[in-house]
Design a protein that fits this description.
It contains eleven helices and two strands; from the N terminus they run ααααααααβαβαα. It is mostly helical. It has a two-stranded parallel ribbon with strand order 1-2. Helix 1 crosses helix 4, helix 2 runs antiparallel to helix 6 and helix 5 packs across helix 6.
């Protein structure tokens, strides 16, 4: 008789599920997309510190006050985010290089900016400043969303973390300088909306399982592109179109210009006018349609 067949080899164990890519970046810049995000984070920190210092110095603050406001502008959003996420210490207390970037940029800006204005006619509204600010917004909104994800908060909260990180430093800056917060008024172009959109895109692309590099490029690219469109075409959010609201906005610097989504006109077009309503009611009364009564 033929020898018995050898037993079948055991089935290989199932492959473990592929772990999701980390929503993080390396400690220092390197030649990878997450590493370049860290570099953009450093760059954006310097730009935010510069613009915050210029804004404070233009309001008459001294070198210490201007540097402090510039530092708050750069790291204030991330600090508020870390407090809301219940972290023991703000990120810059561990990654101390952020504090040195802010201090060096603030002092250097305070000392050099007046000479640059006189010698080269630079302005805080120049194109290169807008591009630097846009890169900072793009990096910060993605990094904020990453922090929310790593802390285990829901998707909407992670999006909010992205917006807080990119904009709340400027919010605190405006409060300290006693001027209307930029992100809450339409006296200038879109800002917080662009950071919010970048964080949303990051989360949406992440939900499709895209690699971390693709997520970073999509989220940061969206915010940067929207910031460019905002200052290029003076995009603004709509405000109330009633006299008292228009006067209040004008008192805060809103000149009423800019390209705004005509939500009021859209609602008015979909809502019957008071004259039309009165005509309908009159016709119904004449025809006896109300309460089933009336003369025939």
């Amino acid at each position: 008789p033929a020898p018995p067949a050898p037993p079948a080899p055991p089935a290989p164990p199932p492959r473990p599920p592929r772990p999701p890519q980390s929503d993080s970046m390396p400690r220092y810049p390197e030649l990878s997309i997450p590493g370049m995000l860290r570099g953009a984070d450093y760059f954006g920190t310097a730009v935010f510190a510069m613009t915050g210092t210029i804004a404070a110095a233009s309001r008459g603050m001294d070198i210490f006050g201007s540097t402090l406001v510039g530092t708050i502008t750069a790291v204030g959003g991330g600090t508020i985010r870390d407090i809301l996420l219940g972290k023991g210490r703000a990120f810059w207390m561990v990654e101390i290089e952020y504090l040195w970037i802010c201090a060096a940029t603030g002092v250097g800006t305070f000392l050099a900016w007046p000479h640059l204005v006189k010698a080269y006619g630079v302005s805080e509204n120049d194109e290169w400043v807008n591009w630097g600010d846009a890169i900072g917004v793009g990096a910060f909104c993605v990094i904020g969303a990453m922090n929310g994800i790593r802390s285990g908060v829901p998707c909407a909260a992670a999006v909010a973390c992205g917006m807080f990180t990119a904009t709340f430093g400027g919010l605190v800056r405006d409060v300290l300088m006693q001027r209307p917060p930029r992100i809450l008024h339409s006296y200038t172009d879109l800002y917080a909306t662009t950071a919010l959109s970048g964080a949303i895109v990051y989360m949406v692309v992440r939900s499709f399982g895209a690699p971390v590099g693709v997520r970073i490029l999509a989220g940061a690219g969206t915010a940067i592109a929207m910031r460019w469109a905002a200052w290029k075409y003076d995009l603004r959010l709509p405000t109330f179109d009633i006299p008292e609201a228009v006067q209040a906005a004008a008192a805060k610097g809103d000149d009423g210009r800019g390209l705004r989504l005509p939500l009021g006109d859209l609602v008015a077009a979909l809502t019957p006018s008071s004259t039309a309503v009165e005509v309908v009611k009159s016709e119904e009364l004449k025809s006896g349609m109300i309460f089933g009564g009336g003369k025939k």
